[in-house]
């Protein structure tokens, strides 16, 4: 297969650094453009990025010069797929402009997620929603879900399909990298828990219902209640969530386990984890430090399953910048290629 040329917008950021790491040796994609803010334009990647990962900057990315967020400049590089990981304020215009030029835009940004004609994709859960793109040449944006929604829907999908859901309550403990490089000052988060993340609770509720809803010419949201309570905690990477789910009928833990584990891997896609959901039986798992890199950061780990009547409780852990952002977007791009859409 001929490699597809790809660009990354916001390449120096928390999510951008995951793209740079995951795409450096990708078998299907060849990075031809990295873009960032005016602060970075013209600098080499190694000069501009405040690298925070514990693996070094990939050698072939170090000397790449950063481009501005300009649709003509990006299009001229020959990129056919663009990954967008810039702040929302910068995202709307550039994503629309690139899509209007026929480029395939896969966005981590929140700005288009709830638009009626734009699919919001967690590949193993709702790849069939890509049908919403009827005429790819008329504009092409696929959105990734919010980082705390991704792990949640990966664990709810099998429960919804096999048993049924009435209500889902979720309490999140979200890592600092989820707020971006300069998102949470160290003086605010060290020795602390901040029980508020702006707009996050609303995003989790509406995105979960869109992803687990149906698409038949238009999106119809799933028919259960989702309520979230979100907190920022002093963890670098990996969002933990405590989930309380009211199931639609009587069941037992064996069936619940089988339902959660029933999410199918996507065969043949290089970044697809197998299995996508990992169940752990130890009473003190999942934990961010121990479990965030499960499935190279692409799998969601579930533990502490407890059933009281029809109320199921469990904990999950999902890597926010890998599975919750760049990794999910790369998996979407692999899916697009495999379906002949990119
Ligand atoms: N962090 C997560 O876990 C996560 C998960 C899901 C989705 N997201 C979404 O992904 C996006 C990026 O998040 P992040 O955490 O990576 O943020 P970040 O660490 O703050 O990085 C932001 C990136 O965007 C660039 N940028 C900032 N302002 C810009 C502007 N006006 N024009 C062009 N480029 C600009 C920055 O370039 P400079 O380095 O030059 O400033 C940097 O490359 C956001 O939309 C966020 O909501 C994040």
From TrEMBL:
Record flagged with keyword NADP: yes
Q: Where is this region: Disordered?
A: 269-294
Q: Which domain of life is it from?
A: Bacteria
SMART domains, alphabetized: Semialdhyde_dh
Enzyme class, spelled out? oxidoreductase
For this protein, the parts annotated as crossing the membrane are none
Q: Where is the Semialdehyde dehydrogenase NAD-binding domain?
A: 5-133
* One family name in Pfam for this protein: Semialdhyde_dhC
One Gene Ontology term of the molecular function aspect:
NAD binding
What is the active site of this protein?
147, 239
Return the EC number: 1.2.1.11
Asked if the Swiss-Prot or TrEMBL record annotates the protein with the keyword Chloroplast, the reply is no
Give the similarity note: Belongs to the aspartate-semialdehyde dehydrogenase family.
- Database matches in PANTHER family: ASPARTATE-SEMIALDEHYDE DEHYDROGENASE
Task: Please report the name of this protein according to its UniProt entry.
Answer: Aspartate-semialdehyde dehydrogenase
**Species:** Deinobacterium chartae
